[in-house]
Amino acid sequence: MASLLYLLVILAIQGKSFAQSIAPLQTTEHPTERETVILSYKYDSQARSLHWYRQYPGSRPEFLLLVYESNSLLHAEPPFPRMNASVNKVEKHVHLEISSAAVTDSALYYCALESTNYERAHSLV
Ligand SMILES: *[C@@H]1O[C@H](CO)[C@@H](O)[C@H](O)[C@H]1NC(C)=O
């Protein structure tokens, strides 16, 4: 089997303050090995930053990196070198790019939005 297919799954975060404001553009990806995979979300509120996480079955979510609307990045420490992220401010899309995808990248990937009115929303709860 030269090109092994596998699954990357992304899911919208179900938190009450995020549920309406961020949604995946695709739910599964079936890349071939060593391809660059791009996972995307659409968000529809004011975002301060967008945070990407990865979760393997039975494990806690791991923080990968976050991207600001200005497209500046903040990587986890230690960084995940094959991960990159970008934002299209006009379409309000956020992308996670995984280069040289491998079978071991099969996981649940999700994005959480940190809203500019996050604190205000929370103080109303
Ligand atoms: C990450 O993505 C941004 C936006 O697409 C790009 O400008 C930058 O060169 C990329 N960085 C790497 C290390 O690929």
UniProtKB/TrEMBL annotation:
Keywords from the named record: Adaptive immunity, Immunity, Immunoglobulin domain, Receptor, Signal
Record-annotated Immunoglobulin V-set domain positions: 36-113
Signal peptide residue numbers: 1-19
GO biological processes: adaptive immune response
Keyword Signal: yes
PANTHER family: T CELL RECEPTOR ALPHA VARIABLE 16, T-CELL RECEPTOR ALPHA CHAIN V REGION
Annotated protein name in UniProt: T-cell receptor alpha/delta variable 11.0.3
Organism: Sinocyclocheilus grahami (Dianchi golden-line fish)
